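Q: What would this chain look like folded?
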Amino acid sequence: FYLADIGGNQALDAFYLLIMGVFVFFMQCGFALLEAGTVRSKNTKNILLKNLLDACLGAIIWWAWGMGVAYGDSASEDGNVFIGTAVGGSGAFLAAGWGTPKGGFDGSDGYTISLWFFQYVFAAAAATIVSGAVAERAQLVAYLIYTSVITGFIYPVVVHWVWCNNGFLSGGFTADKSKTILGGCLDFAGSGVVHMTGGVAALCGAFVIKPRIGRFDENGNAVPMPGQSTPFQVLGTFILWMGWYGFNPGSTLGITPAGYGTIMARAAMCTTLSAAVGGITVVGFGRIFSKTYDVGMVCNGILAG
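A: My prediction, written as structure tokens:
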């Protein structure tokens, strides 16, 4: 364990990133509870198995090549603007070269490995977004093929575009703006990289698979399909809300540089207010249009916020 060998503030930044990553990883528990509570009891084991395997497959893929595709040539001035590569045969693929400073990935540096973990849990979150959108109507093998593709070949490429210092959409990291399109874009905590990528994949999956059998009647009207456990839905929502305090404030990727504490605190405040306003808004609109208070919709409002 290399943190003890790091001098200065880097040990604190590595520890901070590791703790924030644990918060984000715990969101997998929130996803599992929320989805298990929302589906019918006959599909509980299926949805939980998908969530478990998301985390397992994601870890192996992110270690083997996901991190490399995302950040493999981050130390090279002439790196690929579209996809990460192995600079000098090292980099982040299979953790090759992490024992030396070659290629910008120094494995004797605890911060690098903490960064790997933090980026892994982001990738796992992006993949898990889709499991709810195709719940109760996707075969396990098909879903595992999907999660391997998005974690290994789609999400890390998008990360390279926006968050690597060679990406053609990286307005915040690519110093040579001539490599970018219109100067690139800024994405602090993954609203585009994580949530839009996962959301578009979820939309495509739901469009292809179509609604659950019996979800609509012959006139096209929605038929209620209540989930099996409202307590699971609420508990899962609270866990996801808590996990976002690692997701958003943790996206500073450190705590010791000047101004980072302020950014972290603002992110925490905005996360709190956004979730709260989303929940209250759904309560109000639900009362106006349906004359009821729907716990499940309030959970959706909080998560959307």
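Residues 1-7 have pLDDT under 50 and may be disordered.
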